[in-house]
Amino acid sequence: MGFFDTLGVKCVNELAIREKRVLLRTDFNFPADENGNISDFARMDKSIPTIKHILEHNARLIIASHFGRPESEKDVQYTLEPFAARLAEILDQDIYFFEDCVGMGAMQMVRDLKPGQILVLENLRFNPDEKKGTSAFARELAKMCDVYINDAFGVCHRKDTSIAVLPRFVDTKGVSFAAKQEIEELSKFLGLEHGNGFCIMLGGSNTTDKMGLIRPMLEIADKIIVGGPLAYVFLAAKGENIGATPVDEEKIPLAKEILKSAEVRKVEIVLPVDHIAAETVNSTEPVVCRTESFPEGMTAFDIGPETVELFAGKAASCSHLFWSGPFGVYEKPQFSIGSLKLASQIAQFPIHKVAGGGNTDEMLRTAGVAGKFDYVFPSGTAALEFLKNNGSLPGIEALKD
Fold first, then answer.
1. Which of 42, 174, 316, 397 has the highest CB neighbour count under 10 A?
2. pLDDT by residue (tens digit) across 165-202?
3. For the whole model, what pTM was predicted?
4. Which bin fits 11, alpha (ψ -120 to 50), beta or left (φ > 0)?
5. Could you tell me the CATH superfamily of domain 4-181?
6. Strand segments (E) across 181-238
């Protein structure tokens, strides 16, 4: 019996969905460039097997998702309409799109759906109640469906309405094929403890969530490799010279505490020793510098070649590896080199290795090594929260009978 079988959660193929109204909560929060244009639809592929399964059962499919962090209720930069168009291309069928996610108009669109048809609702985050976890909004969404399927493991650590509240108002509920696989893959890390050779690599731009996850990871990891903006909080906490590289000053005391706790627990925290620095992120003439000779007025935007070798060497000595987030301003080609080189090296190691979060999946595909990792998750934070909480997340708990 696998871990998933012990959860009390069903997969979509275990549910009675024939000719039902099925709401599929997807995670279409795909990478976008600086102009808001979607740069990579690849994650959509993981939803397709579940979508096809639902359609094969003559169900009426309603797709709901969030995208980005819209600052207003109708921020067109974050509309889901392009996702509906792309999905129509992939499935080679017409797909309906509605400009809201609840209300009389949305309900009428659902009523008009025929078996085998698909409706994509507008961005859930256009409704302020999505982030508030409100029962009223959950009931409005629940009116539109007979079955709820969670295909958004990447946000199962959040208490958003459509993740943690809506399932409680739907009798028939479960997870998609992709979400089940993600849970099963992550469960392979459960039970690890000091001495089992577990290494965590943390990068990406989200320092707040990952800083809060490092402390509990000290209980199970042997090595924690830190890059990206988070690394400079720790370097600043150690009193190292980081030039003009910005850091969140409020997090420095916590970084100092973590460094002390890691030393007591004999957990090695590995930080960059050299950097690719420049005056601005748009500079085309970056320089390589070591920490002790960091140029005045410059900012670090990527890890240097010595750090690539250091990180690779530390990772190679482990048995289990979880990598969340690129190490650099990956969106800029001149600052993506360190992450790509590191990915190419780690891909060759004969260890249990998974990755996820931020642009990690896109980065691994660019390096041509995504297929050499055991699994690539859409979200690093959700995966790390899963490990931190021994397999429990709000989005999973809400699906239990």
1. 174
2. 999 999 999 999 999 999 999 999 998 889 999 999 99
3. 0.88
4. beta
5. Phosphoglycerate kinase, N-terminal domain (3.40.50.1260)
6. 198-202, 223-226
